[in-house]
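Hi Y.,

Following your request, here is the sequence exactly as I used it, all 235 residues.
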Amino acid sequence: MIPAALRLAIAQLPDPAFRSVLLRGLAITLVVFVLLSVGLFYGIGQLPTTGTGWLDSLIAVVSSVGLFLLKLLLFPLVLTAAIGLFLDDVAEAVERKHYAAEPPGKPLHTAAALLQSLRFLLTVLAINLLLLPVYLVLLFFPPFKLALFFVVNGYLVSREYFELVASRYLPRAEMERLRRLHRGNLWLAGMLIVLLLTIPLVNLVVPIVATAFMVHIFKRLPRGPEMPAMPRTGA
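Below is the corresponding structure, written out as tokens. Let me know if you'd prefer a different format.
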């Protein structure tokens, strides 16, 4: 189920709806970074000088390098949040192509999508910051550090994308029951998404692929005795 779902998601990347989401996400990210750069550049310009030429030059260089590294770190996070505003468009494109015979999902409002995207990013950042001391200790044991990173973030990512997709079709109580019923498969799917996020350039389209991937997984999950499985009309 998981390999087939991922294959279908990647195969749909040329879809015009997917490209539109990526371009809109990049446009918003560009605007955010222009504003951020102007603000930070102005802030650096307001730093007091020491009166010592070489020290002031050093401070300027360190500030500029720090600014560049900060923007490099924030770029994928901001892009992920920006694309998160339009992930319903991705889900709808998957429905049109693979599940046209089924009732479409109910899209989130823009405000709700923004709040959900920001909540996810803040949760991931907060938990990884809390685990930072553990990561530092595990620097001496690289395989365990890598395993912890994938396990923790795989869980967070799987939960976020599953809830994003499942909330289009199910009330929260049924969505939670289904997530608990298939937590193992969903966790594995989340770790695959995290793996894709570690690949430079590929990580730019991961939110789109992950959403399509999770739609296919959701459509194929057995619903258990109390909830009949949705018909499988997709490829």
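Residues 2-220 form one domain.

Thanks again,
Q.
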